[in-house]
Amino acid sequence: MKTSFCRAVLVCLGILLMAGASFGQMQDNGAASGNWSNPANWSLGLVPNNGNAGNNYNVSLLSSPAVNITLDISPTIDTLTLDSGSTLSTDAGTTLTTTGVTNGGDIEFYNGNTLTVNGSMTTSNYLDLDKGSKLVVTGNLTNSGQMYTNIQNDVTAANTITVDGTFTNNSSATAHIGYFGDTTDVMNVATLVNNGFLEVDTGATLNLTSQPNGVTDVVSGSELDVYGTLKAGSVNGLAKLGSVEGSLYIANGQTFTDTPGSGTLTNSGTLDLELAATSLFPET
Description:
By secondary structure, this protein is mainly beta. The protein has one domain (58-280). The protein is 4% helix and 44% strand. It contains one helix and 31 strands. It has one helix at 2-12; strands at residues 15-19, 23-26, 33-35, 57-61, 68-71, 79-82, 87-90, 95-98, 100-103, 106-109, 114-117, 121-123, 126-129, 134-137, 141-143, 146-149, 160-169, 174-177, 186-194, 197-200, 205-208, 217-218, 223-226, 229-232, 235-236, 243-244, 247-250, 255-257, 266-267, 270-273, 278-280. It has a 15-stranded mixed sheet that branches. Strands 3-5-7-10-13-16-18-20-23-27-30 form an eleven-stranded parallel sheet, with no helix packed on it.
């Protein structure tokens, strides 16, 4: 009877909060929005913050009903899961530290905030960093949805994304660094796997910190737009480009020499130089 009751409650309530493995907390007031710090938004009257009442917390924002929680404090939790339709937004300057994130909803950090993931993160719907916000992922970051910096076009300070592992931009996904082309936003990733749409806009930088050959292949079905800077360590991130089966657009007066490892650049997709960009390619 106890198990059946809990399952019924989970279907109906908007926020599930697991404290350790021993018991669960649910939002018990039916509110569709509210502050993270308000105990009334969490069942048993406990705000999720590791150590509170001697617990560690796995937090889920559910989709029935959809909820909008504002991060108005700077807690540390174990894992965070957002279901479709749920939103996590922020007050100015707050931070959230976790060991893993699964984002099927909306994460909107747009007030000089920091999201630290001491582990890996997947996002399949919407992620936005604005106004000097930061995302730090010590493991891998996988994007299957829409991921932006500066989509609000309020250039208070640069936004930064740091991924110590692999950033995978899946097929049909969008990652756009420095949207609107008027920022100095930076994305640092150890290694890049791009199967979707990836744009480094004007003024923005994508650093491949553990991929010394940079981008060697623009795979079929993918698009890479470089209006800003793409680097592999201290060198141009396209200097070893060997194959284009997808679409590659290079713009804004950039000049580099391509010396692929095979000695030959093969293009069966789209290779477009725009806005006074110049590249010296090997003769074939």
